[in-house]
Each structure stands twice: as structure tokens, then as C-alpha cells.
Amino acid sequence: MITNSTFLLICIALASVTAQTFQYSRGWTNGKRDGHKQAEDLRHMASSVEKILNPCQLSKLKYVLEGKPLNDRLFVPCDYFEEDEVIKSYKNDRNQEPLFEAFQ
Prior knowledge:
The structure is a single chain. The protein is mainly α. It is built from six helices and no strands. It has helices at 2-24, 35-52, 55-65, 72-75, 83-91, 97-103. Helix 3 crosses helix 5 (83-91). The radius of gyration is 28 Å and the shape is rod-shaped. One of its GO terms (biological process) is positive regulation of heart contraction.
């Protein structure tokens, strides 16, 4: 009887030590469950994308992410477009033109 209770006590002690070790290791930390840090990372990535990509590339990316069908214009390098054309297509989003006219 003593050997069974000793064995049970050793198993419980090992289980609690293992659980505590896992809790304080990389497996489980309070920081991983915090969504605030992830939101900051996403904001930082979004601002860095705007710095890296030019307006032509951003409009192509937006076009693809909206799920519109692919056409030949997407495969043409942005260097071949005239800058005025790119700027116009980038600024004139849907329903934005009346807004610009109202505030000018």
C-alpha cells in the first residue's frame, strides 16, 4: 500500500513540475495571448508597405486582392506607364471624385 501511494505522489509531483515548466517556457506566456501586440505589428507592416510600393504597385495589389479578373495590364511593369495616368487611376477611387469636388 505504501508503494502505491508513494508512486501516486511521485506522479503528481512530476505532473505539477512539468506543467509549471511548460507554463514558464516558450509554450505558454501571457504575451502570446495579447492581441494588442499583433495589432501594432499589423499597423507597422501596413505603413511599411506604403513606403516600399509605389502607387502603381499599390493599385495592382488592390486590384488583385479585390478578386478582380487578371488582365494583361497587371503583368506590364509599372515603369511603362505614364506617371499622370498612374496617379489619376490611383487617386480616383470609387465615389471619391464627388468628395474631392465638394471640398475644393
